[in-house]
Amino acid sequence: MRKHSFFTIGLTLLILTLSACGKNPAVVRDTEAEVTEIREAAAPEQEADTEEETEAPAFPETEKPAESEPVKDSEPEEYDYPSFNGEPSVQINGNKPLFTEDQMVPESFEEYSDLDDLGRCGAAFACVGQDLMPTEERGSIGEVHPSGWQVAKYDGIEGNYLYNRCHLIAYSLTAENANEKNLITGTSYMNREGMNPYEILVANYVRDTGNHVLYRVTPIFEEDNLIASGVTMEAQSIEDDEICFYVYCFNVQPGITIDYATGDTSGPEYTGQSEETKSETEEVVIPEGTTYVLNTNTQKFHYPECDSVREMNANNRLPVTMTREECIEAGYSPCGNCKP
Ligand SMILES: [Zn+2]
């Protein structure tokens, strides 16, 4: 398997400077479905193939490890990122985030990079604590047009919309609504299948423990592309080691071709099939054990049986095993129809 090529120069140094990072993200009991996904998606680092050299952007200067002895002489002199091979996300750097010891301070903050000359987002960095999490319903983000933004509808994508305004740091973590420094043009697939399981993991942890998680999401743009190739997500809990991951989520949509320079896309044409027609043919599969179904757009939660679950845009439909209280604490409010 060649999909998980990434560079390990500086790894020795990083291991020395990072705190112990032994646990897989897949420990939060409320997200068993997502956990399975993460495990499947997670690439053992042994699979890294040092021979493959793919073009990839260098790490941001501040994150680039200092010159240090390469682990292997054959490694290229820069980080690169894995190629998409059917999984929405893969571990990178042995799943160890690049935070430094002196950043491991249990005080909440959030900071967002200024847009660059092309209007593109940079890293969004936070120490997530309960005090940053949302206390009111999510507002509109429709006025923000991230770099490369366009409306693109296709058949074969549930809900039909290819692109989402994709939060770098999820609303459920830092309650940022229409912050242009925190929204990129992301595929429905990346948003829902790549990033969301990790976001829920962190949100559940902070909510349950009151602890802090150092958390950074960095969009990776190759050259002057307006659409990110993917995002890296780093997280490390500060008061303990429950949360520790470093993953790359692919900004792809299976079946759709994306021109990352412009945002233009091609694929199976949207035929304007009505929602009514779709709901007759579309089987909505709710995993066993699901307690509630979240609508990640409206921030409502429903009983799995609620008609709204079938009617909602499939891109926003997220079955969870959370309790009612947990849904509310995560920023969701109960549906007015099924009244969960
Ligand atoms: Zn409902």
Rg estimate, integer Å? 20 Å
Please report the first level of CATH classification, the CATH class of the largest domain: Alpha Beta
Question: Percent of residues in helical segments?
Answer: 10-25%
| The CATH homology group name of the largest domain | Extracellular Endonuclease, subunit A
Q: What is the terminal-to-terminal distance?
A: 45 Å
Per CATH, the architecture of the largest domain is: 3-Layer(aba) Sandwich
Binned strand content: 15-25%
Question: Compounds present?
Answer: zinc ion
Sequence of strands across the biggest β-sheet: 1-8-7-6-3-2
Report the sheet with the most strands, covering strand number, pairing sense and barrel closure.
Answer: 6 strands, antiparallel
User: How many distinct helices?
Assistant: 7
Question: How would you describe this protein?
Answer:
- This protein has 340 residues and is of the alpha+beta class.
- It folds into 2 domains: 256 residues, Extracellular Endonuclease, subunit A (Extracellular Endonuclease, Chain A, 3-Layer(aba) Sandwich), CATH 3.40.570.10; 54 residues, no CATH class.
- Helices cover 18% and strands 18% of the residues.
- It is built from 7 helices and 14 strands.
- The chain has a 6-stranded antiparallel beta sheet with strand order 1-8-7-6-3-2, with helices on one face. A 4-stranded mixed beta sheet has the order 13-11-12-14. A two-stranded antiparallel ribbon has the order 4-5.
- Strand 7 and strand 8 form a beta hairpin.
- The longest helix has 22 residues.
- The protein is globular, with a radius of gyration of 20 Å.
- The termini are far apart.
- It binds zinc ion.
- Zinc ion (ZN) binds next to loops.
